[in-house]
Design brief:
Radius of gyration: 21 Å
Shape: globular
Structural class: mainly alpha
Distance between the termini: 47 Å
Oligomer: single chain
Largest sheet: 2 strands, antiparallel
Strand order of the largest sheet: 1-2
Length: 206
C-alpha cells in the first residue's frame, strides 16, 4: 500500500492520524458493511445465503428478525453490527474464517483495515484466517518467525499469541502456553535426558 497521508498530517496540523483505532470507527463502517454484505451472498448468483445468516445467529449469539425472511434478518444484523463494534468485528472475524487463506477477499479486507488505521489486521493461523490485534512491526516479524518454526514450541507460541492478540483474549491461557513454549524450546538443550523437564527444573539445572 502507498504511504500517502492527508495534507493536514503532512503540515503537522493533525497529529493523531497514525493512532490505531479499536472497534469500527465511523469512516470504516460503510466499507466494512459492504464487505460483509458481499460475503453473505453467493459468488455465482449474488443471492443472500440464509444458511450463513442462521450460522452467524448461532455462532455469534445474535438474535435476528426473520419476520420477512432473509431481508429482515439482514437488516437486523446490520443494525446490531453498526450499534455494537464488538459484534461487528465478531461477524467479520467469523466470515473471514470461512475464506481460503490466499483469497482476494481476505487481502482486500486487510488493506481496508490498514487504510482506516484499524487496531485489527488479517492473519493466518493454524485454524485458518482470523482477526488479530496489530503490534509494532519488528515485534510482529520476530513473533511470526518463531511461530513458523516446525515443532511443538512454535505451535505453543502461536496459541499463546492468539490468546493475547485474538478476538477472545485469555491472559491465563496465553501465559500457560508461553511457558510451555519455552519449556519445549529449552528442554532439548538444557535437559536433553529429561523429556518432562519443567521450566522450574530447567532453571535449577541451568
Amino acid at each position: 500500500m502507498d504511504d500517502w497521508q492527508p495534507l493536514s498530517v503532512r503540515q503537522g496540523k493533525q497529529v493523531d492520524y497514525d493512532a490505531l483505532q479499536d472497534g469500527v470507527p465511523g469512516w470504516l463502517v460503510s466499507s466494512l458493511w459492504k464487505w460483509v454484505d458481499r460475503e453473505l451472498r453467493s459468488r455465482v448468483s449474488g443471492y443472500l445465503s440464509i444458511d450463513l445468516l442462521h450460522e452467524i445467529e448461532r455462532r455469534c449469539r445474535v438474535t435476528l428478525n426473520w419476520a420477512n425472511g432473509g431481508s429482515s434478518a439482514l437488516a437486523t444484523l446490520r443494525g446490531l453490527m453498526q450499534s455494537a463494534p464488538t459484534r461487528f468485528l465478531d461477524v467479520v472475524d467469523f466470515l473471514l474464517s470461512k475464506l481460503p487463506v490466499s483469497s482476494y477477499e481476505a487481502k482486500q479486507l486487510d488493506v481496508m483495515l490498514t487504510e482506516a488505521g484499524s487496531l485489527w489486521r488479517v492473519v493466518r493461523r493454524q485454524k485458518g484466517l482470523c482477526l488479530e490485534e496489530r503490534v509494532q512491526e519488528p515485534i510482529a516479524l520476530s513473533a511470526e518467525r518463531a511461530m513458523s518454526r516446525q515443532g511443538k514450541a512454535g505451535r505453543l507460541l502461536m496459541l499463546a499469541w492468539q490468546a493475547i492478540y485474538g478476538r477472545s483474549p485469555n491472559p491465563s491461557w496465553a501465559y500457560k502456553n508461553a511457558v510451555r513454549a519455552v519449556e519445549a524450546a529449552g528442554q532439548p538443550i538444557i535437559s536433553p535426558k529429561n523429556a518432562d523437564a519443567t521450566l522450574g527444573k530447567m532453571i535449577a539445572e541451568f
